[in-house]
Specification:
Helix content: 55-70%
Strand content: 5-15%
Bound molecules: adenosine-5'-triphosphate, (3R,4S,5R)-3,4,5-trihydroxycyclohex-1-ENE-1-carboxylic acid, magnesium ion
Number of domains: 2
Strand order of the largest sheet: 2-3-1-4-5
Radius of gyration: 29 Å
CATH topology of the largest domain: Rossmann fold
Length: 297
């Protein structure tokens, strides 16, 4: 390699390329902890020639560079490309990201705040909580108060499948229902404009859809005591509590609350409706949404 081959003008794109290759070879070799001697032995390129390459001297042939790349265990393009990440962990993550399904990719982008705009959530409000929390009752009334559409994921699933929720659950099972609900949620998230949304009590247990929900909607956890949950859903013929006496039903709800509390606590706000009339809770929820500026910010 003779110095006369090195383009000296720093504006020259060949100079930028040779400097970049030199830097990448140095970085990758150090990252892998490979002495120059080892790279030399593996590639058949002399240590002196490698030293020149790493100093940005000369103009290595493409065939020799390919041998160096192979010795370093990297595709040659990693040593050449303008924007590339040489961190092996980041490369592995990039490969996994490429193969991931759409919902996982969207959740990862949200977690990394690829789209940072805070207004992504403005006017998009989601009510969460166990059965009987009042998602439907309060959601419908609050939507009316703000003149917004009210969307229930479970109704979307019923429309999609053409059968009532109880039949969806017995036909598709809890996993099938969760998958259908996650698909419906994705459609809601892609909507433009404000809305009040209600999701099933179990959605918080689905990591990717829940992360997506948190990043694209303001979430409110509606709570009440286990005894009040039972008193509210029993008259609705809650399948989950069928056959349980009062004590068993309350214990079942209590253990579900305990298990899900760390998940529900990730909501942006909470409203306790215990020993409160539905009408008063509607007013409380309207005030909370207004105070928190969920419709505007
Ligand atoms: N403070 C209150 N807030 C909300 N609902 C109340 C309140 N007090 C009593 N209720 C009654 O409790 C019931 C709440 O049921 P609702 O169907 O709205 O709950 P949900 O969260 O939508 O449950 P599910 O998960 O089964 O869809 C209603 O019958 C409602 O009238
Ligand atoms: O809290 C839950 O896990 C559930 C609540 C219901 O809305 C249904 O979605 C289903 O029974 C699961
Ligand atoms: Mg409901």
């Amino acid at each position: 390699m003779s110095n006369s081959e090195v383009p000296q003008n720093t504006d020259d794109p060949r100079h930028a390329l040779i400097s970049r290759v030199a830097r990448r070879v140095r970085e990758v070799r150090k990252q892998k902890g490979m002495p120059r001697r080892v790279v030399s032995e593996l590639s058949g390129v002399s240590p002196r020639y490698l030293a020149q390459l790493e100093a940005g001297e000369g103009n290595i042939s493409i065939a020799l560079l390919e041998r160096v790349a192979r010795a370093l265990g990297m595709p040659m393009e990693v040593l050449i490309a303008r924007n590339i990440c040489v961190d092996p962990e980041a490369q592995r993550i990039a490969q996994l990201f490429e193969k991931a399904p759409d919902d996982i990719r969207a959740a990862i982008k949200d977690l990394l705040q690829v789209d940072k705009s805070a207004s992504l959530r403005a006017g998009r409000i989601c009510l969460m909580g166990l059965r009987g929390a009042g998602k439907t009752t309060l959601g419908r009334n609050v939507a009316k108060a703000f003149d917004l559409p009210f969307i229930e994921l479970s109704s979307m699933v019923e429309d999609d499948t053409g059968i009532p929720l109880a039949e969806v659950l017995s036909l598709y099972g809890p996993e099938g229902f969760r998958r259908l609900e996650a698909e419906a949620l994705e459609r809601v998230i892609k909507r433009t404009g404000p809305f009040i949304l209600s999701v099933s009590g179990g959605l918080v247990e689905q990591e990717a859809p829940f992360a997506r929900l948190l990043s694209r909607c303001y979430t409110i956890w509606l709570q009440t005591s286990p005894a009040e949950h039972v008193a509210r859903v029993r008259p609705q013929g809650a399948m989950q509590l069928a056959g349980d006496d009062e004590q068993q039903a309350v214990a079942k709800i209590k253990s579900l609350v305990d298990m899900r509390t760390p998940l529900y606590e990730r909501a942006h706000a909470q409203l306790d409706t215990t020993r409160t009339s539905a009408q008063k809770s509607v007013r409380d929820l309207v005030s909370l949404i207004t105070q928190m500026k969920f419709l505007t910010h």
